[in-house]
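Tutorial sheet, problem 5. The two components below are modelled jointly, 253 residues in total.
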Amino acid sequence: MRIRLDLSTLGQTKWHDYAVRFLFGGLITAIAGMIAKKFGPGIGGLFLAFPAIFPASATLIEKHEEEKKESLGLNGAARGRSAASIDAAGSSMGSIGLFIFAFVVWQFMPRDPAWMVLGGATVLWLGVSVAIWQIRKAL
Amino acid sequence: MSQSLIRFMIGGVMVSAFAIIGDVLKPKSFAGLFGAAPSVALATLALTVVSDGASYAANEARSMMAGAVAFFIYASLVSRIMMRYEFRAIFVTLCSVPVWLGVAGGVYYFVWVR
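Model answer (structure tokens):
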């Protein structure tokens, strides 16, 4: 299965969908900082992998797929649920990359330049996630 | 307060950027990878290094591993429920958040506190 860009989905997304994700992303980042200040980095760090925008994104995917089917006069509920389920399965693969990201930052941050550690960890997150996705597709 | 506002703005931008990348990618299972992007982590850790130092940020990253394990279980559970039952995505994703909290807290406690 080929990976491709589909810019038409940007037109389907309404401004308030973008606003909701900005709001949730901003809130969880601010709250993670407050939790770390109050309870220390141990508890605060947990929230760096909180599924902050996952509910908003899954709902949006479900809605878009439903609308697509309904515009053809079909019932889109099952298709919407299936699309959200597939997206969630992708996120579970991405979370393995997220674990590697955290491991690399934990190991290298104290002794290497922060920009290099965060950049390298992000590249590794993407590489590991894509590799797992490709292996899963091949099975 | 001003630091929280800066975190809010940078976090919002980072999360939105990764979400837009996920929106335009196909197939959906590949786009889903970006639902687990380290967007909140990048915003938080970059600011934490500046305000509290690299060791503090490394400690946060150590706990983040427990959060990532919880994310894996959370996303797998949501995927399975959405595939098998006729529930709405908003209901399943929000009702499953306590699973994330429980697993993240449990892993953190049993691996690093006990």
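Marking note: The helical segments of chain B are 2-24, 28-31, 39-52, 54-84, 89-95, 97-113. Full credit if you identified this.
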